[in-house]
Amino acid sequence: MNTDKLSKRLETVAKYIPRDSTFADIGSDHAYLPCYMVKRNAVRFAIAGEVVDGPYQSAIKQVKQEGLTSKISVRKGNGLEVVETNEVDCITIAGMGGALIASILENGRDKLKNVQRLVLQPNISAVSIREWLLRNNWTLVAEEILEEDGKIYEILVAEKGDSSALYETREESAILFGPFLMKERNDAFVKKWNLEKKNWQRILAQLEAAPESEENIQKRKELQQKITLVDEVNKS
Known about the structure:
This protein is α/β, with parallel strands linked by helices. The chain has helices spanning about 10-15, 30-40, 55-65, 100-105, 125-135, 170-175, 180-185, 185-210, 215-235; strands at about 20-25, 45-50, 70-75, 90-95, 115-120, 140-150, 150-160. The protein has two domains: about 10-165, Vaccinia Virus protein VP39 (Rossmann fold, 3-Layer(aba) Sandwich), CATH 3.40.50.150; about 190-235.
């Protein structure tokens, strides 16, 4: 992967960044995504944000090598600290856990007032992001799920608005699986949830062999409910 050829997952993120927008890529690593977008004249300006010094220095080096320092600002800071209010139209966060992405959005809520779009790619726990979006008046406008190098990734695209209509029926399933993804049910979706189901069944078997306790009873109940949801979505 480089600034001319992104990974499949980052290419998918890139296609949802509005043309001629300004955007901030949080956790930008080598700033591949900002460089890719600017080199194609797809955006007017980009911010590459990093909290860890090593990736921050790598991003600075990459942007300088590409001669893009006038169009890409590399900044060091935690989450949305690197963004000024009203500075960008779009925020991308890719390659982190869903709970961490949700916490970054929560901690930076004051920076989101005039942001028009979020493009989020969690490695795990996309449900944490859907729950945050629902609570904070952001609505999903698109979702994708794909497999690359043996790993399965979800991309969530959100804009300001009431999302309750997405979850009016089968709310628990829609939040867990994604309202768009559970309708499409492509090969990556089926593979992901069949693997999750097998893992839950394995854990459930261990819990059933363990001593009885309130905690174990509750965990078994939660796992059984999730397994049932997978069976239901696969049948629908």
